[in-house]
Design brief:
Layout lengths: L8 E6 L11 E7 L2 E11 L6 E9 L28
Antiparallel strand pairs: 1-2, 2-3, 3-4
Amino acid sequence: MKEYDNNNRGVLFKNDKGDNDKRPDYRGSAVIDGVDLNISAWIKASQKTGDKFMSLRFEPKQGAPKKATRAPVMDETPFKFDDADLPF
């Protein structure tokens, strides 16, 4: 039997906002690139068109290891400047 791969998938459930309108309308979780995340979603409306959309926030779950990011590789090729390249 093949093991279920939950990577790059998530789920949202309607959230009980109680008496606090700032709480998200939906809450859930996802696994993105092997990192467990909490998802918060608010239903909003565009100021221009009035179209509804969801605004999302992703946060690592408490205690979940954050995926290491690599520092950018700097090109160590020396820059050669030639005055002839100047237009003045």
